[in-house]
Structure formats: structure tokens, C-alpha cells
């Protein structure tokens, strides 16, 4: 597992200035070490492979606090609950010297996610050739990403998306397993009797949705629940 640490978006002269300040060195070192340990533990718990990058945000070089003895300096994650994305670390010195600081940092977690390879229109059925597994910083994505092609099997898009878009669950809906005009088998059952009859779908629907179907023999239109391709069920 690879990781990178350092000063985030700072000019070289500023980073050099930080390294000459023992307090800033201590704060950056303690924050970085703590976050590395937290991220490793987070990855172990989630059983996933990813590389990460810890960047401590700019610290005010005008800070005038005494150095804390190493065995008296503690760190904890103030926010968020998981050490990914924008984080805040609380550093506390508990000795004859007492102080507490909140240090902001950025934890980038790079993982392969599902990305579309070409523009796709609304209601497009997603095919394996439309997908690629590409590395992205999931710390910037929240939970809006997918990591397994099986997660999009039989799914279609709710809206149009551009090429290189990271797929998220919110973009997807189950493809219609029954189309308007399809021939279907209408089933009805209770504890004593089971009936099956031929019907025609009057509207399209996904598994679990209710649609109108016409009994071909009687011509009666009823509401039925879609159970699967060509299969609907009505209550008795």
C-alpha cells in the first residue's frame, strides 16, 4: 500500500519555513502519524485495497506555544467519523504544559471505481462495454460511487451523463422487465387455489412495481405486481 504525506498546496519557501519551526514540525508530525494509523485501520476494517495521501493544511507560523513532551501529546479524530476527505484532528498536550489545537488536513483515498467510457442518454441500459474501472479519490465522492460491475447489471440511467462520469447508485434504476404490449402470465393464488391466465401489459414496469394488465380472455383490466420477466401477480 502506497501513501504520500506533505504540505498541501504550499509554496516551497513556505514549507521550508515550516520545517524551521519546531512547534509546527511537531504538529505536522503528530497529525500525519495519527492519520496514517487511522487510515490503515479504516482500510483493514473495510477490507479494501487503496492507496492514500495525507496532506496537513497550512498552519499559522505565528503560533506561540511551548513544545509538548512527546509522551504527553495525544491525537484524536474530531471530524468526520471516518478519516477520509476533509478531516480535523484534535491535538492535546497534557503535562505541565497544557494546550489543545485543532489541525485541518485532507486525506485522499484512491480506489478503482466504475466510470462510463462514453456519453449515455437517459434510460440507456448500461452495457459492460460502457464501463471502465479507473482510480479516483473516493474522499471527494462521499458514498456516491460503485466498485463492482455486477452492481449495474440490469440497470439503466435515470438521466443523461457525460463520458468519464463516476457512476453512483443515485443515477441508476432497474430496467423495465416488462414493456407495454408484452404478453404476460397473470397469477393469482391463496391458501386454497392457484390460477394462471394469459394477459397483456398495458404499461411498462420494473420488478416489484404495479402495472395495469388486461386479461386476454375476459378483457378485464386489473392492477398486478411485476414478479419478473413476463410474470405478474394479482391479489385474490
From TrEMBL:
Keyword terms of this UniProt record: Bacterial flagellum biogenesis, Cell projection, Cilium, Flagellum, Periplasm, Signal
Function: Involved in the assembly process of the P-ring formation. It may associate with FlgF on the rod constituting a structure essential for the P-ring assembly or may act as a modulator protein for the P-ring assembly.
Pfam families: ChapFlgA (PF13144), ChapFlgA_N (PF17656)
Family under the similarity heading: Belongs to the FlgA family.
InterPro entries linked to this entry: Flagellar_FlgA, FlgA_N, SAF, SAF_FlgA
Organism: Halopseudomonas laoshanensis
Taxonomy of the source species: Bacteria, Pseudomonadati, Pseudomonadota, Gammaproteobacteria, Pseudomonadales
Gene3D superfamilies: 2.30.30.760, Antifreeze-like/N-acetylneuraminic acid synthase C-terminal domain
Name of the protein in its database record: Flagella basal body P-ring formation protein FlgA
Signal peptide: 1-20
SAF domain sequence ranges: 111-173
Subcellular location(s) per record: Periplasm
Gene Ontology biological process terms, A to Z: bacterial-type flagellum assembly
Any one GO CC term of the record: periplasmic space
